[in-house]
Amino acid sequence: MAGTALTESLSPPSVATLAADALRSEVWLTPKPGLVDSANNGSHDDMDLPLFLRSIDAIAPWLHQFQAQGQQDFLQPAPAMLMRIRPAGLACEQAMFGATQGINAHKGGIFSLGLLCTAAGRLSAGHRPLTRQGLCAEVAAMTQGLVERELQHCRQPATAGERLFQAHGMTGARGEVESGFLTLRRHVFPHWYSETHPERRSLNALLRLMAYNPDTNLVARGGLSGLHFVQDYARRLLTSGWQKEDLQQMDQALIARHLSPGGSADLLAVATVLMAFPQ
């Protein structure tokens, strides 16, 4: 594990700091249909905003460790990094569970943002420019073959992700990182600056993710019909134009169906970090 001196040597702005800030911005963003925000707990009976903030505080130091590990091991082959950061990933998850009394608030975020911070450390230590394209490519390189190893060759599915792959061929967060965040590059980044106000920009990005992201959280809760309900609803709002009142109505519709697009919320945090860098 990287030492404290290495962690403190990170040059600002730290991608790990940006990642923690992005998680905080995401949870405060309101209204978020079906998700925990400052107005309500969305479709969650066991989560609220203070719990999410405690989770983020527990995760934040480990994001710096991911970045430090990437710096320390930048000469290692990219595919070797997944196993090298695994101990930090497990420790980060345990820190989260300790802060939330065992509730999974950010496991998906830890996975995606941990890889992104590691990628940033590798690029900076190798004197390669920090760009959206470079960061996405490095994450893809580090996770090459992940879907095949962990999903295609899984004979007895134990997790929701493994079951959804066997039932529907959905690759979830694993597929997203292995593709270098293709959903973001295809559906979110090109439209990021179509909104000028930062809050509307984030809400519009979330709406685009709900429209196009094959969110396994939605399928786990409501089946494929739940996913299609959210995607169709989001696409209608994007086509017709939306106001906050439309998102509040969508929030109530998702709560009534117990649907929560948690995978899209994770990707919004990733997008927020990546959009801090040039293309």
TrEMBL record:
It catalyses: 3'-dephospho-CoA + ATP = 2'-(5''-triphospho-alpha-D-ribosyl)-3'-dephospho-CoA + adenine. Keywords: ATP-binding, Glycosyltransferase, Nucleotide-binding, Transferase. Coiled coil: none annotated. It is an enzyme of class 2 (transferase). It comes from the Bacteria. Its EC number is 2.4.2.52. Gene3D superfamilies: Triphosphoribosyl-dephospho-CoA protein (1.10.4200.10). GO terms for molecular function: glycosyltransferase activity; triphosphoribosyl-dephospho-CoA synthase activity. Belongs to the CitG/MdcB family. NCBIfam families: citrate_citG. This is Probable 2-(5''-triphosphoribosyl)-3'-dephosphocoenzyme-A synthase. It comes from Rahnella victoriana. The gene is citG.
